[in-house]
Protein 1
Amino acid sequence: MPVAISRRSKGEDGGYILATVERAIGVLEVFSRAKPELTLNEVALAAGLHKSTALRFLATLRSRGLINKDEDTNRYRLGWALIGLAEIAKIRSGLVAEALPTMRRIREALNETVFLSVRVGDMRADLEQLESTRDVRRVIALGVQKPLYTGCGSKALLAGMTDEDIADYIARTKFTALTARTITEPGALREEIEKIRRQGFAESFDERNSGGAGASAPVYDSTEKVVASLTVSIPVNRFTEEVRRKSIDLVVEGARVVSAQLGSGKAGRHAHAG
């Protein structure tokens, strides 16, 4: 069977773009922050494909982990394999490379786990971590998607979204209590977001999973948008008031440093640990 080749583009090395691959990428690109989940009909319409063709592309991408499907709702979303690819792309360049020296300083000051996260659609993905050297320590599952509404690393990212985006996110999100401390009421979540914005950092205590506490601060890029969160994760039995205050100071200052390295003019807010 002949392979379709795009007639519109020719690479600098003399090669041609494969139309099938180009259309598969087009299917991935129909997903967005505004529309992270789509039905088959929505994918077909957005990608300009017949429904049967779109289904074949989705099935192929799903077989490689590039697309996930919610069997209950029959809606598709980007797959976790993309997170892994993004991690490889960033691990020694850009955001992670800029953040690593600061992450090391924070880890050395506290000897607790430090990690860097980004927003992926309606979820959080952790790109890099430096683990504590203690026998009992928090360990983050890199690349695994986590909800934006719970956990300090997630909430720092959520608070960096526009009010309109937050309203849309809350309207389409099904809130599930992961622990007794998980915020699941939209009004309470909005209050938490405003608090994070005022004080310049987020906190969590037994919120996403039992036994964990931490503090997180937003990282800004040259456009002054929140592009990441910098977080310290600590077992709750070590999260004393002294450690809490020190953690907040370190992540707020650390996020300010990384933001400056990314071209942000934000000086960062003074941390009011309260």
Note: The two ends are 68 Å apart (CA to CA).
Protein 2
Amino acid sequence: MADCSIRATAADGGIRAVGIVATHTIEEARQRHRLSAVATAALGRTAMATLLLASNMKHPQSRVSLRLAGNGPLGAVFADGGVDGTVRGYVTNPDLELPPDANGKIDVRRAIGANGYLDVVKDIGFGTPYNSTVELVSGGVAEDVAQYLWVSEQIPSALLLGEVVDRQGVEVAGGLLLQVLPKSIPDDSFLAEVEARISRITSFAQWLREGATLADVLDKLLGDAGLHILPVELPVRFACRCSRQRVREALKMLGRHELQEAIAEGKPLEANCHFCAEVYALGPGELAELVTELEAVAQP
């Protein structure tokens, strides 16, 4: 199944849902950063949550970033995603290994830690980005982001995130965001029924692993509630905004003297992108071009 996200509504617009499959996207992140299993799961969940939050934004340049910083050994987990379906991210300690939890699953909660903060930045594409910080409630990512949605936006939300990671890599990864607009649903019993259905989902990733599509999952949850799946699927992919030109501009900040010293040593200068692990190496010839550009600007 190709990586994508779909959107849907139910209960005459009282429920909005977004589903995502990001298997190949998270696998690329794993390979780029050489992530352990638990680091892959933590970054994968954070990346998918970022894309799910971004999906509700309107401006084509809108982006959302999430940073979970708990008291666990993994350190900070960061992801930045856009309404265009692109995402990137990193973890502080990518090679961390932990034994499975009591249920035999990847122990993301222990890796991140339950004591700490979730920082959310929403950039709508213009003006000043919106920042919000809430305390972590579990370190499992899904519960923490759902808590943020309730505290910050007062919208009851259910967030399901899951992955299957083995020694060969990411077998499947996906997520679902369900938000209920209480004023649009007069029947409280229906809300309780939806919550009960969600609570019975023990492994969203397992459904996908067994061949279920996002539409299948939504139909199981909301098929009897006037489910309407929008016909457009948005491709999802790992993509970084770094570039060689940006690296060139950054290296100019070193100044002519330091650049000339590097040229004299005959060794390239390297820059490593924190978000995608891409390595840019600029040799003496390219560094000389930067010196020339700086001298041209310095001339009256």
Note: The chain has two domains: 4-238, 244-298.
Protein 3
Amino acid sequence: MVKLVSWNVNGIRAVHKKGMFLPMIQNLKPDILCLQETKAERGQAVIDLPEYEEYWNSAKKKGYSGTAIFTKMKPLNIALDFPEHIVKKFELKDGYGDLTGEGRLIAMEFEDFFVVNVYTPNAKPDLSRLDMRHKHWDRAFLAYCKELNKKKPVIFCGDLNVAHTYDDLANPKQNEGGHGFTKEEREGIDNMIEAGFADTFRMFVKGNGHYTWWSNFSAARDRNIGWRIDYFFVSKDGVKHVKNASIHNEFYGSDHCPISLEWK
């Protein structure tokens, strides 16, 4: 059994300083840990985890975005960001800058599967990055995962910055059309499912009330007024290997909580 955990830490140094990072690892014992929004470079958060190898993809802009994978299993190959032909095809630059310089993606090949850790760009409250996200990033990401899947099963995880259905956020009607719940962003997930990727949490749990992100305002987390925007997806040929998928809202330290996948 391989246990994978994904967590948007919203600043790894802050979570570690609060003493909330290591307890999560000690409790969940991931074989592969995928982090998003690290807001740091390797070595800036001094964490002693000798049993893990660390791989970082930090944004060029200091203290912004970034992903990392800590793994007990040795990867066969590692790729940071999209390959050149995908970048060229989908034009991943906008007024905010070059998306390939924001540390949003790490892919690793293991013997039996690929793991892709992603921190999807936010459409922004004024939707100024929606076009880039919908027409460029989401399409590039799906094309990349489909390409990897030609070789072996793909597990992708991370903060996708979208609630997929009405069951994935506490107040869908009030948020309809707003960033994180536009038809364009939701269509990105529809396209993944259409391409054969399965939302693993929904293989085990139906209905609402299961969230991974809460606003820091008006005690939203205490009241469970949240959104499910962090996911583990697996390609069609990987579904039979999925033993469990969970949300771990008992862990604090970030505005997101960790999620996990057990793969047999």
Note: The chain has a mean pLDDT of 97.
Protein 4
Amino acid sequence: MGEEELTLHEAADVLGVHYMTAYRYVRLGLLHATKVGGTWRVTGTDLDAFRSGAGTDAGTGVAAAKKGSRRRAPWAERLEQRLIAGDSQGAWNVIEAALAAGADLDDLYVGVLSPALRSIGTRWADGELDISVEHRASGIAMRLIGRLGPRFARRGRTRGVVVVGGPAGERHSLPIAILADLVRQAGWEVSDLGADVPAASFAHAVATSGDVVAVGVSVSIAEHLDAARAGITAVREAAPSVFVVVGGLAVRDREHAIALGAHDFAADGSHFLTLLDDLGSRLPDERDADVLNDVETGQ
């Protein structure tokens, strides 16, 4: 059908479904649509993609979610569409559909929410999206995390305390909130400092948060690397036995992380959890500088 634009009513007629069913497809991110002057518009290209199965998890659409299909669907892309549209309820509908289709909680964060947010950030940086759209999407994402967060809590004795935060000047709190929930789900107690944490405050949090096992520092913007270095230095001076890991878009690799003063580098949340698991297996009862040196040098 090419680039012909249809109203949602017309698209529903083409699909042979009720208007509300087509509307549900849009709110779930299954059918791409744009709101123009209060009316949903669907291009012929997007409608063709939906009919061929490209936008509906091999053509099964909502039915697949209801049946709990585990086939990979483009949930991140669907969520990105709803976030950009400023559609809070539609974004939550995508989350619920992904869960119904078999996604785990960590899958939602690592494979759905994080990629959607990275894409939106890239599109803003490239001038494709206005900053207002990016901010609005971030606000919706934070509310999604607020609704999902309690599901990550685990009962029982924790494995120790992990402090996470962003250095002074860093404004990106979403990656930190996501990381905090993932770490909490893995059985650790989390002290989430959020973004824009002065170096002295990082050290104070480590000194006052109980049995701190590790610190995770997230840096998204390169201009905040010096502040990250200061925070890492303050933590290591205040608590030499605490394992410090740095990651985020501004940190290139392990060599870069070590140059910033950290013990190690985490490419993403899953990598950070792997490092914590390794540390936990090395330090079942107590921590000391010799063991941390072994971790740092890879011995």
Note: The two ends are 61 Å apart (CA to CA).
